[in-house]
Specification:
By secondary structure, this protein is α/β, with parallel strands linked by helices. It has one domain (3-125): HUPs (Rossmann fold, 3-Layer(aba) Sandwich), CATH 3.40.50.620. 45% of the residues lie in helices and 17% in strands. It has helices at 15-27, 47-57, 73-79, 92-108, 128-136, 147-162, and strands at residues 3-8, 30-36, 64-69, 84-88, 114-117. It has a 5-stranded parallel sheet, sandwiched between helices. The chain is globular. It starts with a strand and ends with a helix. The mean pLDDT is 95. It binds 4'-phosphopantetheine (PNS).
């Protein structure tokens, strides 16, 4: 059984993430989309909300499961018995950080292999941080994230305005 883990903050999950999840689901028996707890200091969505959104947007992909992990990714790889970690590379600029993280993870756990997948170029400029920023300035994000995320962000923004 080839189980891959796609770790990240997913605050929120974007169309770029979804593209990588779909690609990974075609080459693995199971893909665990793993939300890192406490990876962001002041996240827009709680870990549970991020998990719910990932579940909603991957509902049509049967071999995808959303999980959380606390602490080191290198330890989560053993705990969840995954064959490898998947990370998306949008552009060359992602490479240096990802390369460093992949080698450090393998140093921490020799069983921790990292596979890089390239999302479709139409998503190469997407990031969760930009989505949050555009939404907070009132811009439209519907071309960049699934409809479930648009609705969830709208709900967050409305609550913020009314609080
Ligand atoms: O979506 P992101 O923010 O790029 O994901 C980064 C993430 C969560 C995968 C990374 O920060 C991580 O693995 N955090 C868990 C703690 C850890 O293992 N840190 C050492 C990495 S070498």
């Amino acid at each position: 059984m080839k189980r891959l883990m796609y770790p990240g903050s997913f605050d929120p999950v974007t169309n770029g993430h979804l593209d990588v999840i779909r690609r990974a689901s075609r080459i693995a028996d199971e893909v665990l989309v793993a939300v890192a707890r406490n990876s962001e200091k002041s996240p827009l969505f709680t870990t549970d909300e991020r998990i719910d959104l990932i579940r909603a947007v991957t509902a049509s992909i049967p071999n995808v499961r959303a999980v959380t992990f606390t602490g080191l990714l290198a330890d989560a790889v053993s705990a969840f018995e995954v064959s490898a970690v998947i990370r998306g590379l949008r552009a060359v600029s992602d490479f240096e950080y990802e390369f460093q993280m992949a080698l450090m993870n393998r140093e921490l756990n020799p069983a921790c292999e990292t596979l890089f997948m390239m999302p479709s170029p139409e998503y190469s400029f997407l990031s969760s941080r930009l989505i949050r920023e555009i939404a907070s300035c009132g811009g439209s994000i519907s071309a960049f994230v699934p409809p479930e995320v648009v609705a969830a962000i709208r709900g967050k923004m409305e609550r913020t305005v009314h609080d």
